[in-house]
Every structure is written in structure tokens, then in C-alpha cells.
Design goal:
This protein is of the alpha+beta class and about 140 residues long. About 25% of the residues lie in helices and about 45% in strands.
Length: about 140
């Protein structure tokens, strides 16, 4: 009788260990998030950057910023679509004008470094912008 109890105890422990290992493996596999998924959300500029970026899961974005030029404040904003090339670590943004649904004829290309709460983008091939840093909101 005692031997039968030990056998069931060993079987129970074996099943429990397998279940724990399977749970850990699933947590690791499903916990790994692609850059595209990590990018989704609101990002607020830091280190002198005043822009706010919103990346939506549907591939659309919004950028807003309050600028002060010669003592005059004005708000700027862009909307459009974006694509992430995770292999090349590049974000391509396709802004659209409110008056022209076909777009404004430009593509913004940024190399990026992304963590869970920090995003740095660097404009590629443009003299107008440089490195910008953001934190997740």
C-alpha cells in the first residue's frame, strides 16, 4: 500500500514539474515582444524634445508639438501611416496632409533604438532633423 502512495506522489510531482516548466516556456515565448508591438503607444519627448508621438496598432501615427518661433507659440501636427523594419531597425513614416488624402509626398525615415520605456530616433538622410528621444507615457 505504501508503495502505491509513493508512486502516485512521484507521478503528481512529475506532472507539477512539467506544468511549471511549460508555464515558464510559454511566458518566455509570449513575453518576447516585437519592436512593432513595443512601439505602439504614446511617446513624450525628453532631453529638449517637445514632440509627442502616438503610434497606433493599426499602423497610423500622430505627431504633435508646440513650437516657439520668434516669441510666437504655435502648434504643429502630422498624421499618417508608418511601417517598422525590425531587421534594419528603421521606422518609415508617411505623413498625410489634411487637404490632400494622397499624402504630402515625403517619407520620414528614422533609425531607432527601442526599449520598453525609451525610444530614440535618428533621421536618416535629412538635414532638417537629428536625434530625438522619447519616454513612454
Amino acid at each position: 500500500m505504501r508503495r502505491r502512495k509513493n508512486k502516485w506522489l512521484v507521478v503528481f510531482i512529475f506532472i507539477a514539474v512539467v506544468a511549471v516548466i511549460a508555464s515558464i516556456v510559454c511566458a518566455v515565448i509570449f513575453g518576447m515582444s516585437s519592436d512593432s508591438k513595443k512601439l505602439v503607444g504614446t511617446w513624450k519627448g525628453v532631453e529638449g524634445e517637445t514632440a509627442v508621438l502616438l503610434f497606433n496598432a493599426d499602423g497610423t501615427f500622430e505627431e504633435s508639438e508646440n513650437l516657439n518661433v520668434a516669441g510666437v507659440d504655435f502648434d504643429t501636427g502630422f498624421k499618417g501611416t508608418y511601417a517598422v523594419d525590425e531587421k534594419e531597425k528603421v521606422i518609415r513614416m508617411y505623413p498625410k496632409s489634411d487637404s490632400d488624402s494622397s499624402g504630402i509626398g515625403s517619407t520620414w525615415v528614422y533609425s531607432y533604438v527601442l526599449s520598453d520605456n525609451y525610444l530614440t530616433v535618428d533621421n536618416i538622410g535629412s538635414i532638417f532633423e537629428g536625434r530625438k528621444s522619447f519616454t513612454r507615457q
